[in-house]
Structure formats: C-alpha cells, structure tokens
C-alpha cells in the first residue's frame, strides 16, 4: 500500500473525529498498487448507524484528509444502513485493505 504508517494513523484520527470511533475505513483502488505512481486516494467508510447527511460527511472527510495529504485528491465512499449498496462497496471490501 502506498501510504506511510503516519498517513494511515492521521487518516484514522480524522475519520474518528468526524464519523466516530465505530467507523471502519478501507483503502481501495490504485493506492494498493505498490508499483503505481500518483493517483487519488480511495476510501470507504463503513458505518453501523444511519447517516443524516451523507454528502456533507463525505465532503468534510475528503477535505480534511486531502489537506493532511498535501492536497492529494481523496474520494470518500460511504456505507451505512440507510444508504444504497452498490457494486463499488463490494469491491472496496473485497479488494480493499482495512486500516
């Protein structure tokens, strides 16, 4: 995975601050390919409780993590009981790495 231990720790801290301590975070996509260069950071947050405003939560996390990653583009996918489950969610869980 092309993230340092410090970056992983910071991502986890930001997720807990915004989404709570029960949120699980998966990294998926090009960041898992150690031979690749560049690219955005794809994250999926798995939440056990319904989300009132998913767009706001996703945007807040994306902005905070992007700043922590020196402007790297961050895409945040959300999984919660009140949100539709799409094939991309299965890809994130099956091919991604829990951090």
Low-confidence stretches: none
First-last Cα distance = 11 Å
Total strands = 4
Task: Kindly identify the CATH topology.
Answer: Beta Polymerase, domain 2
Keywords:
19% strand, 4 strands, four-stranded mixed sheet, 99 residues, 3 helices
Summarize the structure.
The protein is an alpha+beta fold. Helix content is 39%, strand content 19%.
Question: What's the topology here?
Answer:
Layout: H1 5-19, E1 24-28, E2 41-46, H2 54-68, E3 74-79, H3 87-95, E4 97-98
Parallel strand pairs: 2-3
Antiparallel strand pairs: 1-2, 1-4
Helix pairs in contact: 1-2
Model description:
It is a single chain. The chain is of the alpha+beta class. 39% of the residues lie in helices and 19% in strands. It has three helices and four strands. Strands 3-2-1-4 form a four-stranded mixed sheet, sandwiched between helices. Helix 1 packs antiparallel against helix 2. The longest helix has 15 residues. The chain is globular.
